[in-house]
Amino acid sequence: LGSLSVRSASASVDERVASLCGSNPDDLPALLVRPEHYEINLTIAEPTSAEVVGGFGGKMRLRARASEASARCLALHAVNMTLNDVMVRRESGGTIVSCTAGVCSGGVSLVYTSSAVVFLPGSGVFDGLGDEVILLETSYQASFGERSGLYKAQLSSKPREAVTVTQLETKGARQVFPSVDEPGSKATFRITIDVPSELVALSNMDVAEARVADGRQSKTFETTPVMSPYLLALAIGEFHSLDSEMNDGTLVKVWSTTEQDLETLEVALDASVKALEFYTSWTDQKMRDFKKFDLVAVPGRGGAMENWGLLLFDERRFLVNVTDGFYERLECYDVTCHEIAHQWMGNLVTAASWDDISFNEGFATFMEYKCLSSLGIGPFGSSLLFEVALTPLSGKLGVHFPGARSQALAYDVGEKAHPLVGDHFDKISYSKGAAVVSMIEAIAESLSPGSFQSGIRSCLREKAYSTTTYRDMLACAFQLHDPAILALADYWVFEDSYPVISKPEGGVIARYLDRDWVPPTAFMLPLRSWDQEKNIVNTDMVLVSSSFTPLPENVASNLEGTILNYGGRGYFRVVHNLSDYREMLRAAAKDGGPETIVTLARMVDDLIHLVDDGLVDGSVLLRFSGELESLRECNSSNAELCFGVVLPVLRELRLWEMFCNSSKATSVDIAKTLFLSNSSADGIFLELVNEHLAALGRSDFAFCNDESEKCDVGLDRKAEWLEKSVGKTVCDLL
Q1: Residue 710: its pLDDT value, please?
Q2: For the residues 699-726, what does the mean pLDDT come to?
Q3: What is the pLDDT of residues 458-479, one digit of tens each?
Q4: What is the Cα–Cα distance from 475 to 443, expressed in whole angstroms?
Q5: Pick the catalytic residue: 339, 640, 652, 657?
Q6: Does 7 score more than 60 pLDDT?
Q7: Residue 2, pLDDT above cutoff 50
Q8: What are the distances in angstroms from CA 507 to CA 358, 536, 542, 596?
């Protein structure tokens, strides 16, 4: 048979197809075809060889409904593959078009765009297809991708050997099989693979049928539930595993390549079972379609993927050696909590389009911290982990998106800022998405305790196996309340950046860091405040429609002695004065409660960045750092205060000292005084202290010279200080 090659197409071809079919070629498949069921057969000759020449073979049978627009064209996403024979027919009977050796019946021609294969009809060939069930069958040859599609991940110690795995998010399904490769185009999938018989072969579901002959095995997996194409997954190679069962009998297996010791999977197995139990309980929804969950450590992956029933992880994040410390264990628990959250928020209910990816990633990031809290590991609560990056700068990968709110506020300014809606996989989608969910939760809970969880549970049931948007999911949190309050969320979803709030007499001033104040619309500011003198916490919804907004009398009457954004849940920064920081430090040292400590941690993070932006004098931070010694010592009992407040201040002071080439090491001296005066600290506390003190003492701590993301922060800060007058100001203070 001849072949029909899907190849790179010029812009003129894309334009011609758009003109004839009425839409951009990348958008056409979702407009023309509504998939219902895929049957896919893949033959992979040598999955454990790093060699990619020759690719892999496939056959596909698709059952779908044509749309009214199909009278003009038919199309499927397909990239880097060669279609052989193709047949399209009505399920009710009758061939619509067949193609062999590059020639199609009925005057139909095939056009290959940069992202799709498009059938351009002859006269009347596709007439009357609207809402009719069609069957499309094809065989094809496809290429292995480079960390996308179906690709080969080289083993760490044996670069000529590999495992074969998938990465289909985003737009990777079209590299593995012709498809409608959009998150909203959900269908069921039944996949069969042909691979060498000695290898482990995993997919989303359990094996339904297996045959072995001539050194090869053919495995057919059970049909998946209705899901998005990007969630289809395979892992093939020389793997070994540990396993356990959930309370309901669901089998959980964690896998690594055989070059890794089995004991390195023990922490991952514990994290996986506990996380699955947590989400099953929190959502009140069992994953009834799955008898098993496989979680696989992949060499050199660089990330993790939440495929339904078959989750894939970077082995550096997932495997924990017996000699590894707290941060390595925390990282494994954290990334596991994040990816398992997606089984409900992303897989069961999915973003309607890539423009709503903040639903998938924002909600999963928010939930991972609840999951961590339920696991009870280490000295930190989830609320503090959410606020600040507790890991020191080091050669490690670092905890998965540490300090989500802090990271979001630092990133969401200037050219990098953008609304939550949009096709972005960045810190806005993950961290700001989570921070806004956290703020909405706080508002809903202040109106009616328990309503947030109840609302999310309800929507997960109602939207199961379907799609949603980030804003619609936020609406679930308010479904028990006045619908008008949902307007509160619109500003944070559809506008970029955030306001900075200061508190002159009688009200608040809202401004932006990166532009003049021009309110896009009037918006509701959730303002939780603590009157220090009266020891009263107030919650107010303040309508902001201009730069100055008066506050209710109960707050405005003692604004000088009031802490704004108490609890730290609001997605904005606040300018406080030195006395506010002193009083909060005293309160945190005396009370030690998580809300007090998180409030102070949020205030300190604001202070550090507001000094950078020239809105607060650097002397406030310097003088506040001198107050830290009043704590006398840091130990296990006040670990959250010391790691969430003291160390961020000392890290910032150390940056100043390094930037200014100061002979002083006040930051290190204070750290040693507070952290090394305790002789009875437990093992984890001492481990963390030693890591942070080592980081403070390193000569490259402040402004790293390598290309890693952890060092970019330091390099960016140095560039900003050199550009602004901030650098000279802090040096004068020292």
Answers
A1: 46
A2: 55
A3: 999 999 999 999 988 988 887 7
A4: 12
A5: 339
A6: no
A7: no
A8: 33, 18, 10, 23
| Beta bridge partners of residue 98, listed in sequence order | 87
d(CA 195, CA 218): 7
CB-based contacts of 27, cutoff 8 Å, min separation 6: none
What is the arithmetic mean of pLDDT over 349-377? 92
Tell me the longest C-alpha to C-alpha distance in the chain: 87
Answer with the residue of higher pLDDT: 629 or 163.
Answer: 163
CA distance 29 to 579: 61
CA dist 388 and 436 (Å) reads 16
User: Which candidate, 449, 442, 477, places its Cα nearest to that of 359?
Assistant: 477
Task: Return the structure tokens found at 496.
Answer: 């970029």
The whole-angstrom distance between residue 621's C-alpha and the CA centroid of its chain comes to 33
Which DSSP letter does residue 319 get?
A: -
Closest CA to 628 of 601, 650, 597: 650
| Mean pLDDT, residues 49-75 taken together | 92
DSSP result, 123-150: TTTTTT-TT-EEEEEEEEEE--BSSSEE
* pLDDT top residue among 676 and 583: 583
Within 10 Å of residue 320's Cβ, how many Cβ atoms?
22
Q: Which residue has the tokens 């209910």?
A: 349
Q: Is the pLDDT of residue 316 over 70?
A: yes
Nearest CA among 66, 173, 183 for reference residue 466:
183
425 CB neighbour count, 10 Å cutoff: 14
Q: Is residue 295 packed enough to be buried (19+ CB in 10 Å), middle (13-18) or exposed (0-12)?
A: buried
Rounded Cα gap, residues 530 and 600, in angstroms: 12
Q: How many C-beta atoms surround the C-beta of residue 394 within 10 A?
A: 15
Looking up tokens 């903040």, which residue turns up?
A: 358
Cα torsion 411, 415, 416, 420 to 10°: value is: 100
Task: Say if residues 474 and 486 touch (Cβ distance below 8 Å).
Answer: yes
Q: Kindly list the strands in the beta sheet with 562-564, ordered across the sheet, starting from the edge strand earlier in the chain.
A: 536-544, 523-531, 562-564
Pull the structure tokens for residue 286: 């069992």
DSSP labels, 461-494: HHTTTEEE-HHHHHHHHTTTS-GGGGHHHHHHHH
Spatial separation of the C-alpha atoms in residues 640 and 646, rounded to whole Å = 9
The residues that bridge with 219 in the sheet, in sequence order, are 193, 210
Residues 164 and 178: their CA atoms lie apart, in Å, by: 20
Q: What is the pLDDT of residues 526-543, one digit of tens each?
A: 889 998 888 888 888 888
- 504/501 Cα distance (integer angstroms): 10
Rounded CA gap, 141 and 3, in Å? 9
To the nearest whole number, what is the mean pLDDT of the chain?
Answer: 88
Q: What pLDDT score does 656 carry?
A: 85
Which pLDDT band holds residue 46 (cuts at 50, 70, 90)?
A: very high
Can 339 be counted among the known catalytic residues? yes
- Looking at residue 379, what is its pLDDT? 72
Please name the residues in contact with 591: beta carbons below 8 A apart, sequence gap of 6 or more. none
Residue of higher predicted confidence among 524 and 717: 524
| Contact indicator for 34, 179 with CB cutoff of 8 Å | no
Q: What is the pLDDT of residue 513?
A: 76
Give me Rg for the CA atoms of the chain.
28
Q: For residue 394, is pLDDT > 50?
A: no
Q: What contacts 274, CB < 8 A, 6 or more positions away?
A: 374, 375
**Residue 413 region, left (φ>0) first, then alpha (ψ -120 to 50), else beta?**
beta
Q: Does the global pTM surpass 0.85?
A: yes
- pLDDT tens figures, 625-639: 999 988 888 888 888
